[in-house]
Batch of 3 targets.
Target 1
Amino acid sequence: MTAHTPDAAQIDASGDHSRNGPIVADVQPEPPRASKWLISVFTITMFTGSFALLTPTLFAVAYKVQLVDPQGKETTLGVIFGISAAINLVTGPLFGVLSDRTRLRWGRRRPWITAGIVICVGSGLLMALATTTTLIGVGWIMYSMGVGCALGAMNPVLAETIPSSQRGTVGALVGVAGQLAGVTGTLAGGMLTGHLLLLFLLPVCVFAALFALYAFTIPDRPAQATTDRQALSEVLRQLVFDPREHRDFALVWLGRFLMQVGLTFLSTYQLYFLLDRLGLVPEEAGRQLAFVGGLGILVTTSFAIVGGVLSDRLKRRKVFIYLATALSATGLIILAFADGIPLFATAVVFILAAAGLFGSVDLALASDVIPDAAESGRWMGIYYVANTTSSAIAPIFAPVILLIGGGKNYTALFLVGAVVALGASLAARHIRAVR
């Protein structure tokens, strides 16, 4: 996916391009160049938010489920993640829309981030103490809603405070931060298996601590008084858009969804892959996941930052999306036939490189083609629904795929993931507003 002509960011932000939707009169000016301090604080805070999300997603919930239901863990985990993701299809972007219209003196984003952190603390405690899979499921639904509330209010910051000329670079930094958060989360998970309270509460406490710095650093003003108050039904209607009117935005959404389906197969079942196919115990699996993730940090950082910077300088996005999907498919194919840690590590390095490159460039691309920058919370919320939708659908189909041939068919699971991830290239190919 490619970047824009010099004034295309404002054109896309307003929805005023003839091939991608109707003209919208309220054109928002480009924000001024962001300072290094603002970028640093935003990146660090996004890291801690990702840490709070990924520690339970990649390790803690799967570990807790196998403690309570060792025989049916694959199906139970899929149901828990699928139901919570389905609920967040609505609640995630809803928080973004509501934050667009919040008029509190403290700002329109900060109150929702605070509320999300509070929800995560309570639900994390519930999961740590749960003795049934039902309670784990309820806790995870609440926890994921809390993270969605917090990140749904933080995501629009990129479009609101970062000019288009810096979005690829900042998107790369955020992408690297997300990968580091995943490695940190799996390492913390492997070290805290004997301390369930810390396993579930430490990540969100770190997020809360760094949010204090964010709250006093990132500009945040109330929504304008001219912003109309709307009924909840009207707010919910804003979560739906016509893909024919905003074709490019729809294609960006579709590409992210397809890429994330392939990656979700790995992130959801990587712990069970190490336990069932490679015969590791949970503590050792946690250490290996962290070790392998650590190997991928350099390549992830390189691909994310270099890809983001080059996409800004070359004013091109698509070529980087093509490369990312090819790397992802290669890694998933290697993983499908891995029978030891060396091949597993090789596959994950490919996939981490793909995730870093895709995450940085695709985030910049989404910010470029937002139909209306005045409602960036709404549109970025819809954009991140692609993640939630993939997280809802992938765990539903994964147990079915795993049952092929008698069960635990990880070869079939990851081959299907590779094919789906390649679909993101086809979606990118048809985007018109960028190259």
Note: Residues 10 and 30 are 7 Å apart (CA to CA).
Target 2
Amino acid sequence: MASPVNYFEIGTPDPAAAQRFYGELFDWSIGTPSPVGYRMVETDQGGLWDTTAIGAGSWAIFYVQVEDVHAAITQAEALGATVALPFIDNGRIEFAHLIDPQGNRFGVWHPKSPDWAG
């Protein structure tokens, strides 16, 4: 697969409840929150994001790893997608959330160093 699906994320305004639910349901190890409220799932397989600071939305999405996040956003918009969360560069990765023409939220991302490949 040229652009693999290799990461997932759960966004919630109640991360403690989501951590209890998914931790118990799937026996996932969910880390402590970072300064921005992000908790890693199973070290690097996924994430649980406290969305309180960004509008308190809820989502469960998959991420597709791409070579160029800006190019993926541009192509997705040309194909009818809209941007839900604009381009973010957090120093380790670049990413964005998009909404496809059918209303499904998904993410595109790119690691900035080879040691963080999701």
Note: The longest strand covers residues 5-12.
Target 3
Amino acid sequence: MTGLQIVLGAVCAVLLVWLVVLIVADRLPNDYLYAALALVEVGLVAQLVVGLVMVGGDHGGVNVAAYVGYLVGSVLILPAGFLWSAGERTRAGTGVLLVAVFVIPVLFLRLHQLWGAT
């Protein structure tokens, strides 16, 4: 795993705890949470660029289509979760954000598996 993935995974872990607290307290996400999500999204875009550069070089037989698909999927998951959550201003909407944030480290693990399979 890259250092960026580890940092983003750690930030996602903190956000997961934050979101669980919001769900239990039945409170809506605030601007600070949205700012943290935007920071993660910036990191995901950076990860996309790094991943595309890695695939453009010697990739040793990595399934490029799957690898790029996971990279692009990781960039799209937070905006999709945010839009869904914004339309559902209840505890369920916060749960959607929780799932979106949880999926990001899972996608990183899959990226690591794909890259390390060669």
Note: The CA atoms of residues 4 and 46 lie 9 Å apart.
